[in-house]
Amino acid sequence: MLFMTDSYIHIVSLDVPYPANYGAMIDIYHRCKSLTEAGAKVILHCFDYGRGRPEELREVAQEVHYYSRSKNPFQLLMPLPFIVRSRMNPALLQRLLKDEHPILFEGIHTCGFIGHPKLSKRWIGIRAHNIEHDYYHGLAAIEPNFFKRWFFKTEAKKLEKYERWIFQKANEILSVSHADNDYFQKKYNKGVYIPVFNPLHWGVGLRGRGNHALLHGNLSVIENIKGIEFVLDEVWESDFGLELIIAGKDPSPEFQEYVKNHPAKPKLIINPDDDTLNQLIRKARINLLPTFQATGLKHKLLNALSNGGFCLVTPEMVHGTALEDLCVVAPNAAAWKNEIHVLKTLQIDEETIENRLNRLRTTFDNLENANKILELIR
Length: 378
Prior knowledge:
The protein is built from 14 helices and 13 strands. The radius of gyration is 21 Å and the shape is globular. The longest helix is centred in the middle third of the chain and has 21 residues, at 146-166. By secondary structure, it is an alpha/beta fold.
């Protein structure tokens, strides 16, 4: 459905959403692109703290504005969450006040000016990429560094308190999963499920015919590292008869050393380009997708389902997504071992793939979901 409109909408992004190569940035970039294709005029606001100012964003937005993020460490001691306070750049508020267009704040990170009296008559939506305080509690539970653990714990407490105040003031909360939407509906009596925007890679040809199992993701994120450690330290066995490949962006020197010296002898591919990663996903005999945080929806799950063959996941990876029946779900290391021994001998059939793709095309139709947002702001 193409719903032409002259609607303007401000989108306030927590980071620069190009290249669209991690979680929220994938969602934000393709939301801007799809809203533009639906006829909306997107006014994009970005916090630039290292990703640059790419010309490509001008193809998906009518205007692009950039703001600095404060690095003042004293903000850690303030009652507002640091991820919020550090983005309260006055220039953003001044630009938002130049018109009366609706505003979509991307993540609780960008919500610092919600509640300002001069924005009281505006339509305001919040894209909740997950339940942020739950996510930070989860990071604190697995973070070995004392200072980072303290930061995650204190930030989680601040975020929970701040959420209770700020989400009541929004006109609507746009959730990324059914579980998150149930939470927001129960707590704030608002919330609408808008699936994540994603350039699903349909690909061509056979799937799962390679001789490797694949772990992929952002290798600088502790949640992903813990999932990889689970596979290497508790699951992987030499008699699986598969090569184990780890592919992802920005691994630390310590992580690289850990992988290099591990008895499982995995192959590490650092910062693969999109084509390389898509081929690895497509050819993998099994895509291994462990996580122990049931928050939001992981884009790497969608990439593996749309482009790959068998997907072996922990229950947390599919919690609240309604995608569990498209995956092989195993709750612990023993179950993972059993499933790998079975899956390595199988080949995924075309009927299974086609049924899966039909589900994904229906749910994750970017243009249709863009029109749902435009209906909300009317």
